[in-house]
Write a structure and sequence with these properties.
By secondary structure, this protein is an alpha+beta fold. It is built from two helices and eleven strands; from the N terminus they run αβββββββββββα.
Length: 161
Amino acid sequence: MSRIAGSVLTLASVLLLSLVGSSAVASAQAASQTSTWQLKDFGVPHRMCVQYGPEGRTHQSYFIFAVTGSWSTDLDFGMRDLPPGWTATEHHLPPGSNYPDPEDGSVTINGFTLVQGSATVPLATYRAHIWVSDGTVTQTHPADIVVTTASWVDCMQGRGY
């Protein structure tokens, strides 16, 4: 067999193996997409209202959330899709569990992340996302950051923004 034919055969084998390997990995990932924990969905996006302000003014606040079920590895969490120039802290929940109270269904809030940024970003509603990940599965929940000139009360009630 010529050297060129051997090289082509080797290259074809490597490409075929990587395609087969990719589909095996994709199948394994799809099979493991179920998890024993859930980022609690309270039925509506979280909401934070920020009064638009003069240059140099910053705003910071916490978003809280609950992870329910049980998990055997650290769950990392934070926020993404923030307004321009904003930041959020990232932390983790150590292995553990959090189940709804059997009597009233309430759950313990076990996660929070600090977000902060300039109050002079363009007036808008920014759809950010709280995320929680075990390294294989990532779950998200929407969180609106509303930069407005309306009063805080009107903004929180969904009016005048």
